[in-house]
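Q: Protein A?
A:
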Amino acid sequence: MLIPLYTPRHFRRLGTWYISGWRIKAYGISAHAPEKEQFLQPELIIEARSFVEANLGRIEGAPHYSVGFVILHHGSSAKTLLTQWWVNECVCMQYAAQSNYSGQPKFSFTKSDLMACAYELVAIDFERRAWISTVMSGKPIEDYLESWLPDGLNLRGISRCRANVFMTACRVCYPSILQKPFSPAWNPLDEGMIPSFRAITPDDTADLQDLWRDAWTATYGPSLGQNALSAMLEDIERKGTASMLPGSGERGHCMASDHQILGSAIVAERGAIAYLWGMYVHPSQQRKGLGSRLLRGVAATIETAEKVEIRVLVSSPMAIGFYRKHGFTETSGETIEILDSVKASALVMSANIESLKAAVQGNPNSFIATSNKPA
């Protein structure tokens, strides 16, 4: 029997899924990218998350740490979902599910003794090493949650680490293994790196899309529902950054390190008002002061406007609190159109530009908000 030769497949973070107190790291693998426009179908991701959520009872049986990871793999002949979680200090539990290969995705538990394929074992091996190097080395669970297998094309199916100290992603191993070797959701402050505020460039397109996917999944899935989230993810796959940067005189800014964009903000000055939207910090980097630094940088770029105005979803109380702490007040309420098929109730919040500049100077560690461009 001839066994097909190993061929590279694309790996990508799908973000952390926050489900009923659980924090689940989600990976995607595709045998077809980049031949297809989409890495994974948004409806496949939505169905996978819904399946995990619907079967939480299956993973609640034994004492656990409310953390785990999933691998969603669109292979050459199967669509597989592996759900794994940590129990009893060092034990990794798993169940496997598969979806019909064509038509609307629908997962069900496998009837065989399936564990994982050679491609899926790459991510499993990385997660094993991450658990050992963080939680089983006396570090907090948050360090494990911020350790990610880098996005990119896995050329040899290797995820070993030869470094003496296992960092978020080993810089010794991965440059020779991945085309895009280092773009995990890590904490740059742990490495003495200070993210910088700068303008968005065309080279940031892929990283911005990754940031927005993760932020939208964490924020809009719970608040707007899965149908709205699916529509938003489809929109960004189809339009790219034009989904948020329509090219109508706006300026895009970001908080970035050498390796990854950690936050974004978009502003457009129109007369006396500077409209702010697209303000996000990656879910894994929130509560670290990046939101305040991002807002401070935006305020410094405003040239002629006298006040800043933003629409904040009513369903985002943390966002509302963030802006209040930084000098914003509610002026009115309205229904905003996120997409043609997605509408939501929002508060219009505004701040005098001078008051904003004064407020952001003294708030280095606040929550980051979620917001939308003006209708």
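Q: Protein B?
A:
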Amino acid sequence: MKRSPPLICVRYYSTAYRRRHGPTVLYNLESIFICQQIPERARRGRLRKKERGLTVLQMSVRTHSEEPSEMAAPIVAGLCVAATALAGRYGIQAWQAFKARPPRPRIRRFYEGGFQPTMTRREAALILGVRESTATEKVKEAHRRVMIANHPDAGGSDYLASKINEAKDMLLGKSKNSGSVF
């Protein structure tokens, strides 16, 4: 693909200024080290003002009709690299903040302590997973749920089943400090 000549827009001042300094560069659309490709007559100042404006306008149209992807590709690549670096930086900061936070205690659904020698209302409520002041129907429902999970016929422990039954009796008020069979 043949590229059009690079554009450097120029402004011609008075003849005396032009002779001393040459054409003044207004902006450069390519890199700094580009050769000026304006017709020789325009460089010497022999074109009339209309022709000078036309020359710059024609070059401007020719430059802007170049492939936009050629000019945009390095910019897009640079933006992608910058965005990736920024995201990585914030990700590392977030990970360090996550690791530096104090550990939260995990909420446990079940009481992990051992059994007391004599059953109390508090221990009975902990075993069944209800409050000490729970209604009778809720206590029976909780007993049924816990007993299904720990029944000896389904592979549960006899000791746990006796403690679950003792907890139900304690909360329903059927027995006072009866103690475990085991």
